[in-house]
Write a structure and sequence with these properties.
The complex is a heterodimer of chains A (about 100) and B (about 250).
Chain A: H1 3-24, H2 32-43, H3 59-88
Chain B: H1 2-22, H2 40-67, H3 71-87, E1 90-91, E2 97-98, H4 103-110, H5 112-130, H6 138-160, H7 167-193, H8 200-237, H9 239-250
Antiparallel strand pairs in B: 1-2
The chains are: A mainly alpha (about 100), B mainly alpha (about 250).
Chain lengths: ~100, ~250
């Protein structure tokens, strides 16, 4: 099995790992941090959080920042790979599966 | 080899399909302890536990980049990978979402200490801008994600590299273990801070941990696969660079 195939299968597996729960599991898929609060309150009903987050952003802004975070990371990864490839001189038949 | 690779993939996917179908959704939690949800004493304790690693990480980073300026690129790469992966909130089998850590790759490439710095920068970004995690709980979160996870992943990698010709498997396991370990430590941190009325710390740990583990298993596997994927690309472009790292990693840091 060539590297191309292997990489393709790995990507497929990652996608499936995300998609299958959505298909087969009936849940809210809410952020898991909030669920942690529930358990803490259950164990210790008297507990009061003693510090509030500095910023309370609207949901849309938050998802924008998450997208920004991923975009910055992806940009740096792409830049690094390109730089490494360029340094190599002769671009090999690479294994990016498309 | 060709055939075996394909069939192991097929088996993996089939196994998961069954796992998903049989799994009961429940509540879950995430990687980060929320702002203010750790009593003051514990918050300070984990800050104190984390800071030495951070300082050592900075020292290590400085000496590494002095010796090999070209490592800066790989450092950026490791940081970027953590950035991307911790922004991906993936749905999991428990019916809630959580995200991978991406610290395994950097731990294997650069050793665990530099990841302490990189990981905490990512956590700081999320705490300040996204109200995800928190400043008071940053010490605890950084200890689990940026210290315990990378060290566990690095240890697994070192152990598995003793096997002949199993580099990718070692990498996969390192990334998956780093991810899971982050979770185990977070469960432990919450358990010691919130012992159950009956059963104490252990009961709490099992409660947090039992829920955690199930949520994170598929994510840990995803993270392992993505790490191997990036590794393959890196290797195909830059054999020299990777061998330099090999030497660095073999140089026994940490």
């Amino acid at each position: 099995m060539s590297n191309k195939w292997k990489n393709g299968l790995m990507l497929l597996a990652v996608v499936l790992l995300c998609v299958l729960p959505l298909l087969f599991v009936n849940g809210e898929f809410g952020g898991a941090d909030d669920a942690a609060e529930g358990v803490i309150t259950e164990i210790n009903p008297e507990y009061e959080p003693w510090f509030k987050p500095l910023t309370e952003l609207p949901g849309e802004t938050e998802s924008m920042l998450f997208a920004l975070q991923a975009a910055i990371g992806a940009g740096v990864i792409g830049y690094s790979l390109g730089l490494l490839k360029g340094k190599q001189g002769q671009p090999k038949q690479n294994s990016i599966s498309k | 080899m060709k055939k075996r690779g394909f069939w192991s993939f097929a088996a993996l996917i089939a196994g998961f399909t069954v796992y998903f179908m049989l799994n009961e959704p429940g509540t879950a939690q995430a990687m980060h302890i929320m702002e203010g949800f750790l009593p003051v004493g514990w918050a300070v304790f984990w800050w104190v536990a984390f800071l030495p690693f951070f300082v050592l990480g900075i020292i290590r980073l400085r000496s590494m980049t002095k010796e090999n300026p070209e490592l800066k690129l790989l450092l950026g790469l490791a940081g970027a990978f953590t950035f991307v992966l911790s922004a991906l909130k993936m749905p999991s089998v428990t019916g809630s979402s959580s995200h991978p850590t991406g610290t395994g790759l950097g731990a294997v490439m650069l050793g665990p200490l530099p990841m302490g710095v990189i990981g905490s920068v990512v956590l700081l970004f999320q705490a300040l801008l996204l109200a995800h995690g928190g400043i008071t709980t940053l010490g605890a979160n950084a200890f689990s994600m940026a210290v315990a996870g990378p060290f566990a992943g690095y240890a697994v990698y070192k152990l598995m590299m003793k096997l002949p010709d199993r580099e990718k498997l070692a990498l996969f396991c390192a990334a998956a273990v780093a991810d899971l370990m982050t979770y185990v430590v977070t469960s432990f941190q919450l358990a010691v801070a919130f012992p159950a009325a009956d059963g104490g710390v252990l009961a709490s740990f099992l409660k947090f941990g039992g829920i955690f583990a199930v949520t994170q298993i598929p994510l840990a596997i995803s993270e392992g696969l993505l790490t191997v994927l990036l590794w393959n690309w890196l290797k195909s472009y830059s054999p020299n660079e990777m061998s330099l790292l090999k030497r660095k990693v073999k140089g026994g840091n940490a």
